[in-house]
Design brief:
nine-stranded mixed β-sheet, alpha/beta, about 325 residues
């Protein structure tokens, strides 16, 4: 496995989708009753990249977007957040960008995501082979990129190339059932990816799914450490997280906040976690920082625009006791 000290370079290569999110406006409105929507950059990988840039790191995205107005919206948004899109290709024809209609509500939140003919699934091995991996500190990917071909094979090829360059591999499980042909295929592919990676982050449902049962999720997370992973974070929603390393385990709580919505927590957790590791923080501090970033994002509208700056994050954590 790679040396995690490499993270100090603060330059992350992120693989996966960028999309457009449409939020029913004003906050609290239901989609079927809304007469207006606000737009935001979306897609888990693009959100992570935007969050890393907000927190003082560099991030480059590898993906494909549709060759139309929605794709151009995504490109413009990546530019606005400072995400390097050198390796973002356009896909023509009938390919369409990921599009999500989301509500800023806590109760009975609806999220309708359109992934028909998704442009990001058209990413190829040639796309990832065009990257100079030596210029980056880590490769980050989310599970959705593995849901279809040719992006699945491209991602595993990126793992090979990143590993050859000495980069740590970071995997956000990010299971979205609607993207997969079957749960069985998803579980097999996720387990294969997890066995290759140095840092794996997911929630209890995702690890339980990988293990074939919710009651075996924590055992699955522990088994990844036994297979060679360096850090596994097993998130449990309001119950906090269990973080597992080769040195042992520790449990942390969450930062309480007045949440507006449940979405965006995972992407912001990853950005906060990695940016802290990149600046020399220990694993527990990184987990707590990720938890604080998640608490901030769920208290604001949208995901990418809600990502905190370093000052906002430091102030938020200073005003609250560390959760246990």
């Amino acid at each position: 496995m790679a040396d995690l000290a490499r993270l100090a370079g603060k330059a992350f290569l992120v693989i996966g989708r960028a999309g457009m999110d449409l939020y029913a406006d004003p906050p609290g409105a239901r989609t079927e009753e809304a007469t207006r929507f606000t737009t935001a950059l979306g897609g888990s990988s693009a959100n992570i990249a935007a969050g890393l840039c907000r927190l003082g790191c560099k991030a480059a995205l590898v993906t494909r977007v549709s060759d139309d107005a929605i794709g151009r919206f995504c490109l413009n948004q990546l530019d606005a957040y400072g995400v390097d899109r050198t390796h973002v290709q356009t896909e023509g024809g009938e390919a369409r960008n990921s599009l999500a209609l989301v509500e800023t509500r806590l109760e009975d939140t609806q999220s309708v995501i359109y992934r028909n003919g998704a442009a990001d699934f058209a990413m190829t091995r040639a796309d990832v082979e065009a990257v100079d991996y030596a210029g980056f500190s880590a490769l980050v990917t989310t599970g959705t990129v593995l849901a279809a071909e040719p992006s699945r094979s491209a991602c595993f090829r990126a793992f090979e190339l990143a590993r050859a360059a000495g980069l740590p591999l970071v995997f956000d499980v990010d299971y979205r059932p609607y993207s997969w042909p079957s749960a069985e295929v998803a579980a097999e592919v996720y387990s294969r990816a997890g066995a290759l990676c140095d840092i794996i982050i997911g929630n209890d449902v995702e690890f339980g799914f990988m293990a074939g049962g919710m009651d075996r999720g924590l055992d699955k997370a522990r088994s990844l450490i036994a297979e060679g992973a360096r850090i596994v974070v097993y998130k449990m929603g309001e119950e906090g997280a269990i973080t597992i390393t080769s040195e042992g385990e520790f449990r942390t709580g969450i930062y309480r906040t007045k949440a507006l919505k449940p979405t965006g927590a995972g992407d912001s957790f990853m950005a906060g976690f990695l940016s802290t590791m990149a600046t020399g923080g220990d694993v527990k501090t990184a987990v707590l920082t990720g938890s604080a970033a998640a608490a901030i994002v769920v208290s604001r509208v949208a995901c990418a625009p809600a990502m905190p700056t370093p000052d906002e994050l430091a102030r938020f954590m200073a005003e609250r006791p560390a959760p246990v």
